[in-house]
Write a structure and sequence with these properties.
Layout lengths: L20 H14 L12 H8 L3 H13 L3 E3 L5 E3 L10 E2 L13 H15 L2 H4 L9 H15 L7 E4 L2 H12 L5 E4 L5 H9 L3 E4 L2 E2 L2 E2 L1 H11 L3 E4 L13 H14 L2 E5 L13 H4 L4 E6 L11 E4 L3 H12 L7 H13 L1 H23 L4 E2 L6 E5 L6 H10 L2 E2 L1 E2 L13 E5 L6 H16 L11
Parallel strand pairs: 3-15, 5-6, 9-10, 10-11
Antiparallel strand pairs: 1-2, 4-12, 7-8, 11-12, 13-14, 14-17, 16-17
């Protein structure tokens, strides 16, 4: 491309309301490369000239070029200028379709929101206070913010019953310690969040699979498992379940809490994806507040870096028991992140981010529906897909071969409770890939892989 043509492919202005301007520029470069309108070796306009053309300040273009560079799209050559990079080698780092995390929120600039939010926090708090030890379980402001966040699902609640935890995994471990003894069983569905399996194993408990049907754990299965094992603790993930993406009906939720109460069992309701749905059935905690611990983490609906989860306890005594258990391994949530979380919830920023995550998740689910072969189960607003595999693929073979091809996915055996054959499926997580173009490439590559026949695995001989 000649220097006098370098502006030809560029728009004359950016889209109003189309999200952060630096990201619009980086996304434009990515799309132009994808469509071969910009080719390897093409020189980009000087930053100052492009800023004048688009009507933005120089720092916006500088940041856009930096963002495109992080995506591997650009080749800066000092005084010679900035050029479109040649395609990366196939040995590049794995594309992560395995870690279930929210995508970057559409229309939001997280860097600016974090900087602005931390500025507000430090305007109100002394740095020495932020860097000191704080009350375990959260102070009054943090619990009030937690109550405000939980009220979206559960309705008005007493902040005194809220526990602020350093992530859902810490909350889950504390609940297991507080509500069971070594050697006890935890009743769960046949496919569960792997963090439960890991926590139970390391804490000396076992996870027992109850009977389940298309709507999840059955009431008869819960009662039978509790009766036969003596368990008094049940784990459920009723909304956009990990890994199946199924949402349990309201009637099944009512029946399960009734059965748990009849057995004298407490329920851990792990509900990280609930706020993606506008019409989710009421949480289990709303049917039986005296026998349900409700966990809501921000890691799956806002960003994992906040390391904040809220636990709603049935009463003050049970809250104190869980808090005592958590103190044995995690003295407190990080004060700075806790203060930022509180500031975001109270100011409404958290809701803005949630809306942006939901919008981006919906766009990524549309991509999945276009590119992945059926059958698979997913919700149009969720962040993962439960993909059934065609014969002769097995889940473990597909995960291994995908890794050889530079893709990370999660085999069904990671979620399986106990021995025996599980479903022949993989979980595909849509949020970990940074931009949609890269996600589309990864999903297309995975779909092509599923259309092939698996090859025999042999260790290399040297």
């Amino acid at each position: 491309m000649q220097d006098d043509d370098m502006y030809a492919v560029w728009p004359e202005k950016l889209t109003r309301g189309g999200g952060p301007r630096y990201r619009q520029i980086a996304d434009f470069i990515a799309q132009a490369v994808l469509e071969n309108r910009l080719l390897p070796g093409d020189r980009l306009p000087p930053q100052r000239g492009l800023a004048q053309r688009l009507g933005v300040d120089l720092t916006t273009v500088t940041r856009a070029y930096a963002e495109a560079g992080q995506r591997g799209l650009l080749d800066p050559r000092g005084a010679l200028g900035t050029f479109i990079a040649r395609p990366a080698a196939q040995s590049a780092q794995l594309i992560d379709l395995g870690m279930n995390m929210p995508p970057a929120p559409l229309g939001c600039d997280l860097q600016d929101l974090v900087q602005h939010g931390l500025g507000k926090v430090m305007d109100r708090h002394d740095v020495n206070v932020m860097m000191a030890y704080h009350l375990a379980g959260g102070g009054p402001e943090g619990r009030e913010a937690g109550a405000q966040w939980l009220a979206q699902a559960v309705g008005p609640i007493d902040p005194a019953l809220v526990l602020v935890c350093p992530g859902a995994q810490a909350a889950l471990a504390a609940l297991i310690l507080a509500c069971s003894q070594p050697g006890d069983s935890i009743v769960a569905e046949p496919l569960v969040y792997p963090g439960l399996l890991s926590a139970a194993q390391h804490l000396g408990r076992q996870v027992l699979a109850a009977e389940a049907d298309a709507d999840g754990m059955t009431p008869a299965g819960l009662e039978r498992a509790c009766r036969e094992s003596g368990s008094r603790l049940v784990y459920l993930n009723p909304t956009l379940q990990n890994p199946t993406a199924h949402t349990m009906s309201a009637q099944r939720r009512r029946d399960l809490v009734r059965s748990a109460s009849a057995c004298g069992a407490m329920i851990i309701e792990d509900d990280p994806y609930r706020l993606f749905l506008d019409d989710a059935p009421p949480p289990l905690a709303s049917y039986a507040p005296a026998s349900v611990f409700h966990i809501a983490t921000l890691a799956k609906c806002l960003t994992p870096g906040l390391r904040t989860a809220f636990v709603l306890s049935p009463d003050q005594e049970s809250r104190e028991q869980v808090l005592a258990a958590m103190r044995s391994f995690a003295l407190m949530a990080t004060p700075l992140m806790g203060a930022l979380t509180t500031q975001w919830i109270v100011s409404g920023t958290a809701q803005v981010i949630l809306n942006g995550v939901r919008a981006e998740a919906q766009a990524r689910q549309r991509l999945a529906r276009q590119l992945l072969p059926g059958p698979f189960h997913a919700d149009p607003v969720g962040i993962h897909v439960w993909q059934t595999l065609p014969a002769p693929w097995t889940a473990m073979d597909l995960a291994r071969v995908a890794r050889d091809e530079g893709l990370s996915v999660t085999s069904s055996d990671a979620f399986q409770v106990g021995a025996g054959a599980g479903p022949n499926a993989i979980r595909i997580s849509l949020g970990g890939v940074k931009d949609r173009q890269a996600l589309a490439h990864a999903l297309d590559k995975l779909a092509e892989l599923m259309r092939r026949r698996p090859y025999a695995h042999r260790d290399p001989i040297v």
